[in-house]
Amino acid sequence: xxxxxxxMARPGxxxxxxxxxxxxxxxxIRDLHVSYGERLALEAITFDLPVGxxxxxxxxxxxxxxxxxxxxxxxxxxxxxxxxxxxxxxEGHTCIAYLPQRSEVDWRFPITAFDAVMMGRIGRLGPLRxxxxxxxxxxxxxxxxxxxxxxxxxxxxxLSGGEQQRMFIARAIAQEAELVLxxxxxxGLDISSRNEVLDLLAQLRKATILVALHDLGxxxxxxxxxxxxxxxxxxxxxxxxxxxxxxxxxxxxGALRMVSTESGILVVHDTACTAEDRCP
Length: 280
Ligand code: ADP
Fold this sequence. Notes:
By secondary structure, the protein is of the alpha/beta class. It contains 8 helices and 11 strands. The radius of gyration is 19 Å and the shape is globular. 42% of the residues are buried. The protein binds adenosine-5'-diphosphate. Adenosine-5'-diphosphate binds next to strand 2 and helix 1.
């Protein structure tokens, strides 16, 4: 089957800017299936995400979280189904920022933080593709917003893990992204760097945000909606409705600890069991 044109789009590529339908959700996914060769990684994913909302995509390793973000970004094709961003299925959206897992980036690449953030402007540069003073000023402002104003000249590989994630956020800000897809932004960060990233994400008020996460506690407390995956969709909705013991057991099997606290909050622990594991 020919994949819908929307997910063929690559973010950042200069194309005719899609005209958004103001009455449409930021993201509408219908019966999405994604395969790698013969292997089905995602099946029957269907949900709508309202404009300006925050979605945590959770599930065990191999559940398809990254695949979902990549499908929306147009990095992987869908085998079936459709994806529409702001109601349109165009060749490309300059409004989508895809921020990959840090492990997928070659941090030895000789580029400064300033230039990496400027890459977010590529889709908005004029025909000559040369940054103008306004683009440089947008990049400087974005770096300042994430507290990296003195790091612009550093090579990206010289930044700390937390700074690298903040640099990604600056890139999305410089891009003026309206849909931000952030894959595992908290992985490998210490608590204070995690909090900095979460605070910055909270400040991106105008954007709709999808974040792939492992921490179910953060999904419950910092996000409007949760999508629980294990190849297929086990739940989508408000955190309190999705993060229920039975659904979580279906996702994680026995690789999960749940503790009822005095305040009634369920504390859950993802031990990074994989979707293929036969959890006890
Ligand atoms: P998660 O992000 O939840 O850990 P992924 O989306 O990375 O899950 O992976 C979903 C499934 O697709 C897994 O079974 C994984 O092995 C498989 N997969 C992911 N990327 C590829 C790829 N490039 N080629 C083949 N299989 C892949």
